[in-house]
Design a protein that fits this description.
410 residues, alpha/beta, Aspartate Aminotransferase, domain 1, three-stranded antiparallel β-sheet, 12 helices, binds pyridoxal-5'-phosphate, PyrdxlP-dep_Trfase_major, pyridoxal phosphate, DegT/StrS_aminotransferase, DegT/DnrJ/EryC1/StrS aminotransferase, PyrdxlP-dep_Trfase
């Protein structure tokens, strides 16, 4: 079994978080409540399916933020579009006037994310897109709940995509919402998963939780089944060859993932049966706990000091002035960290946005998901604080950009 961090980076299945089905839909609206919702394994698949449904032509441009992750670029390449970029502010806010300057006659689609779950002027972005005859994909990969755009999340774009797997205890789970089905076509759904894939998905979810000591009562019964399933899967994979990819390096990344596929029924069941109120309130509580502990750190600042009532954050983003040493210390301490945007697409024009390389190198995101225990949250708070107190707080030079990107990014 591979070594795992002692503190889980992503949500796990626990005995308590999936009880109160559907509570408080009004208080915390969700992308999962939207009509015309299509479940896939990942949000990138939802993006690809929306772009394919629009029938992009080779020179059609898809406008993305200069601060992005590769899973936002690959769907554009796979659907045959041309990624182009708009700048973001130093706090990741999208300036509508700046976005407007980057829309050209070839722009077909704008992708606008709620970075880390925080506010964006999404309604104004929608108005701009409507005026320009461009499709808006509201990217809710970091915002499954709340109203960070002033209206229920996932209701503003012509399409919306989300990553429930980043919020709920499922090993995979992405979705696409078609908000304007009269003008914007629905995806053509591929065939559903086989019974074997269904079973594997359920077992993977249980196994991940048990690896971190959750669900202790199930452990003695399920371990032998999981070992058998792992052995069978190893045998199957050892007989499959891997085909070399002859495309240029920066495009071949687009073809590394399998084709889009619908989410398993097990996954969909888990998404529908989580305790929403507990999920949202605990996330907010843990965010505030970490934010309080890191309010006056030397060499690092919170990207968002305030947590508005309508925001359910995905993570706690922290900006450090010494990313190289900070990254090395986090790795050696085994502190769970997420690096959205740690690696920008190599063809992103550097002149588009001076903030993007800085955000990419310097913003580290820490988990605040509700399957953490209070002791785990406090341990992250204390150990990050100790690292920063012992790290020289330098000014990052352009040489540092990208150096800290080697850490895993979900
Ligand atoms: C803003 C944003 N959009 C889209 C995606 C793709 O999401 P997924 O990993 O579910 O494919 C990600 C992935 O991290 C993301 O951060």
């Amino acid at each position: 079994m591979p070594a795992i961090d002692p503190i889980p980076k992503m949500p796990l299945l626990t005995q308590t978080l999936w009880r109160g089905t559907g509570r408080d839909k009004l208080h915390y609206p969700s992308v999962l409540d939207r009509p015309n919702l299509y479940h896939f394994n990942w949000a990138r698949e939802g993006l690809e399916m929306a772009l394919r449904a629009l029938g992009l032509k080779p020179n059609d441009e898809v406008l993305l933020p200069a601060y992005h992750c590769l899973s936002m670029i690959t769907p554009v390449l796979r659907a045959g579009g041309q990624p182009t970029f708009y700048p973001v502010q130093a706090d990741t806010r999208i300036e509508v006037s700046e976005l407007s300057r980057h829309i050209t006659a070839r722009t077909r689609v704008v992708i606008a994310p709620y970075f880390f779950g925080f506010d964006q002027p999404m309604s104004a972005i929608r108005e701009l897109c409507d005026r320009s005859g461009v499709t808006l994909i509201e990217d809710c990969a970091h915002a499954l709940y709340g109203t960070p755009g002033g209206q229920p999340v996932g209701s503003i774009g012509h399409y919306a995509v989300a990553s429930p797997w980043k919020f709920l205890p499922v090993t995979r789970g992405g979705c696409l919402v078609v908000n304007d089905p009269v003008t914007h076509p629905a995806p053509k759904m591929p065939a559903g998963p086989t019974a074997r894939a269904e079973l594997k998905d359920g077992l993977n979810t249980l196994e991940r939780s048990m690896d971190y000591g959750r669900l202790p009562l199930l452990n003695p019964f399920l371990r032998p089944i999981l070992s058998l399933s792992e052995a069978l899967s190893r045998r199957r994979h050892s007989t499959q060859g891997v085909e070399a990819d002859s495309r240029p390096l920066d495009e071949s990344i687009a073809w590394a993932d399998p084709p889009p596929a619908p989410l398993s029924r097990v996954g969909r069941w888990l998404l529908q049966h989580s305790d929403r109120m507990a999920q949202c309130e605990l996330r907010r509580e843990y965010y505030l706990r970490l934010a309080e502990a890191w309010r006056d750190l030397p060499g690092a600042t919170l990207l968002h000091r305030r947590l508005p009532d309508h925001v359910v954050p995905q993570v706690v983003p922290l900006t450090t002035r010494n990313p190289r040493d900070f990254a090395a210390a986090l790795l050696s301490e085994g502190i769970p960290v997420i690096r959205f945007g740690g690696q920008l697409w190599p063809r992103t024009p550097p002149q588009t946005c001076t903030n993007a390389p800085m955000l990419s190198a310097c913003v580290f995101q820490f988990p605040c998901h509700p399957s953490l225990t209070t002791a785990e949250v406090d341990s992250i708070a204390r150990r990050v604080r100790a690292i920063l107190l012992n790290t020289p707080s330098g000014t990052p030079s352009p040489r540092d950009y990208g150096r800290s990107a080697e850490m895993e990014q979900p």
